[in-house]
Specification:
- The protein has 64 residues and is mainly alpha-helical.
- It has a domain of 43 residues.
- The protein contains two helices and no strands.
- The termini are far apart.
Length: 64
């Protein structure tokens, strides 16, 4: 039990003293970058899905 208590105390101390937290501006900038990247990657995946779907429909229509 002593090891668990020590672990949590050290973890708490590390979070308070040793971690460099971003400023509010840095946090906002990082959030915007992540959101923009997510939208771009989502659009790319959608375009690949749509294109492959159309290509497969074309191929299947040739063999009807």
């Amino acid at each position: 039990m002593n090891k668990i208590t020590t672990y949590f105390k050290e973890s708490y101390r590390e979070l308070l003293e040793k971690v460099t937290w971003p400023t509010w501006i840095q946090l906002q900038q990082s959030t915007v970058i992540v959101l923009v990247a997510t939208v771009i990657i989502t659009a790319m995946v959608w375009m690949m899905d749509f294109s492959s779907n159309q290509l497969l429909k074309l191929i299947y229509s040739l063999f009807k």
